[in-house]
Specification:
Layout: E1 2-3, E2 14-16, E3 19-21, H1 23-55, H2 61-84, H3 90-95, H4 100-126, H5 129-136, H6 139-147, H7 156-173, H8 182-204, H9 210-232, H10 237-242, H11 244-266, H12 271-278, H13 280-291, H14 299-316, H15 321-326
Antiparallel strand pairs: 1-3, 2-3
Length: 329
């Protein structure tokens, strides 16, 4: 930051008190904020694996999914009202929900999220949880591939980071596992759906309110999950009450807070870099199992964690201007 009288501003700078920030400085600050938002959200997702594992022992996957998303809808709606207090009246606050773009993007992102979450739940019936986590995280490969359709060419550093993260996730999740089954194919579909959701947020979220967009997204997942729960599962009220804590954690924190942080964070980051940060979910899930469930970690799993962390750090390092210009073709 420099005194606001500096002549090189050329009208493109932003004044903060008596100082001015250049676009490059503002961009770097926004990238840091975006990275921190995604990192916090990913940490929540990682520990949510424990809540989902415990909750799934008592109720079916679609019932769990419908209830957790319904809790997120209520939480996000109330939060949006609270955040609007003092800024606008109740009528104006409610009027913000009438934005057609909000519902169009929410329907698109929510549908992709429902497909991804549902395929993951069904895939887990046929395959090991560790391998499921690895295959699901393959959206870090699919996201840059989808970017090619938008004429976005990843840099060499990004390609290396993705490859390093894939190797690390393999060591962390399924080292020594070689067989392929039906669940693996379903989980590949899950990874594709997650990649589509990430790309949709990058392409269409724009200036939409992140909290309201996530609320609509969760509402869509709830509406699509409820019929499957009613047709394929038997919900027991006692079991639902017995897993209120996993449901609240997975609903309020994972769906409500973490997915809002994803939308906010992605506004300041390139999709491939964002997906690499989100791949830390597997690392935090392993750490959560170690801290909370007292699970042990092998030397290969520890090496995998280190490799994924390294890949994420590399992906966030500033690129040379020449490399950045080649990133778009």
């Amino acid at each position: 930051m420099i005194p606001h009288s500096h002549e090189k501003c050329n009208g493109t700078c932003q004044f903060v008190g008596n100082v001015v920030e250049y676009p490059a400085v503002m961009k770097m600050k926004n990238q840091i904020r975006g990275s921190l938002a995604l990192l916090l959200g990913t940490t929540i997702w990682g520990f949510a694996f424990i809540a989902q594992s415990v909750g799934m022992d008592l109720i079916g996957p679609f019932t769990f999914q419908a209830i957790r998303c319904a809790l997120a809808v209520v939480f996000l709606f109330l939060c949006s009202m609270v955040f609007d207090m003092g800024k606008c009246g109740l009528r104006e606050s409610l009027a913000k929900w009438a934005d057609p773009a909000l519902w169009k993007v929410g329907l698109l992102c929510g549908s992709a999220l429902f497909v991804a979450a549902s395929l993951q739940q069904v895939g887990l019936v046929y395959t090991e949880a560790g391998k499921a986590g690895f295959i699901t995280a393959m959206y870090i490969v699919i996201v840059p591939l989808l970017g090619l359709f938008e004429k976005r060419m990843p840099s060499g550093t990004t390609v290396f980071s993705v490859a390093l993260a894939v190797a690390g996730l393999y060591l962390l999740s399924c080292f020594g596992v070689s067989d392929v089954n039906t669940g693996d194919l379903l989980l590949m579909g899950c990874a594709l759906a997650f990649a589509v959701q990430i790309r949709c947020i990058d392409r269409f979220a724009g200036e939409l309110d992140g909290m309201r967009l996530n609320c609509v997204q969760c509402l869509v997942v709830t509406a699509l999950s409820a019929p499957f729960a009613a047709l394929t599962e038997q919900a027991d009220a006692a079991n639902i009450l017995n897993c209120w804590m996993p449901l609240c954690f997975a609903g309020i924190l994972s769906m409500g807070v973490a997915y809002t942080l994803q939308i906010v964070g992605q506004k300041h980051l390139e999709p491939t870099s964002a997906s690499l940060i989100m791949s830390l979910e597997s690392v935090f899930a392993a750490l959560g199992g170690w801290l909370v469930l007292h699970e042990t970690m092998t030397q290969w799993e520890l090496l995998g964690c280190a490799m994924v962390f390294t890949a994420v750090i590399l992906s966030q390092l500033p690129q040379r201007r020449g490399a950045a210009q080649k990133a778009e073709i």
